[in-house]
Amino acid sequence: EHPFPAAPEDCFAVYRELVKSYPSNHIVLLGESAGGNLVLSVLLQIKAAGLPMPAAALCIAPCVQYDQTLPSYTRNCGTEAMVRNFLTTAGALEKEEHGEICLTDYYESDFTAQLRSRKKRFTLEELMQKQEEQSKRGLEAEEFVLEIERSRLPIKAGRIKRISDIDVSAGYDIVSFSKAESETYDRFVEVKCYIGQPHFYWSENEVDVAKIKGEKYILCLVDYSRILEPGYEPEYISDPYSVIFDDESWMVNTASYRIQKI
Asked: How confident is the model over 192-249, as pLDDT tens digits?
């Protein structure tokens, strides 16, 4: 809805108004991931405008280097979960049944073809583009399910919302109601979009939230290739924590482990 440079301009506009009412040395900028990128962008805008700098700026795992060629990516690819998970999310890596992490068939065949032709390099920029395409499909799937939820309960449509952009740590994408009589949110929908055989990645936080909310948590699986198909209805799984881990029709693989020395 608001493409670049709307976000950095909005952030700078907020800071510009803040320093009119508060001393700059009482202001701290904090951002994580893409938010870290915004923090740095705002600092550059503050400098260019000649405004006083904030007391401090904190960037947590900021997105600042998109060609992914510096040592933090190349050297740590095999051990850093964030880098490996990115490659998994982008569809370049997958975990086989025996536990080996390897290139997916698609990327392996594509990589082999490029080695044979020697006409172009297989770059991480292409993986970034693939991830961007996946994010776009995910957003379209969420909007698709949002409309289904609103049409299911027209009387509650105005209160049924997609919150994934507002609260990325919620563990679900949409807040809704199980029935028209519900006064408070009691239906929490996590949307997973796929192409081909139903599959998805479920974060530790999403799993924990699903376990806590039980039957109020709904996992919605959307076949992206059928979104525009008239009458298509995605698959809904109520209480997916109980269903998936106890159902032999699902194969669950651990994509990474958190190791802590004690």
From this structure: 999 888 888 888 888 999 999 999 999 999 999 999 999 999 999 999 999 888 777 7
In whole angstroms, what is the distance from residue 227 CA to residue 140 CA? 9
Residues in the chain: 262
Rounded-to-integer distance, Cα 46 and Cα 24, Å = 11
- 157-195 burial, b if ≥16 CB within 10 A, otherwise e? eeebbbebeeeeebbbbbbbbeeeeeeebebbbbbbbee
**Contact assessment for residue 15 and residue 46, using Cβ atoms and an 8 Å cutoff:** yes
Starting at the edge strand found earlier in the chain, the sheet holding 161-162 runs: 161-162, 174-176, 187-194, 217-223, 235-238
Model pTM? 0.52
Q: Return the half-sphere exposure (C-beta side, CA atoms, 13 A cut-off) of residue 232.
A: 14
Contact between 200 and 194 under an 8 Å Cβ cutoff? The reply is yes
Tens-place pLDDT, residues 84-138: 555 565 565 565 666 555 656 655 555 555 555 554 444 656 667 777 888 889 8
Residue 66, classed as helix, strand or coil, is coil
Q: Where are the beta strands (DSSP E) in the chain?
A: 28-32, 56-60, 93-95, 101-103, 161-162, 174-176, 187-194, 217-223, 235-238
In the DSSP assignment, the letter for residue 164 is T
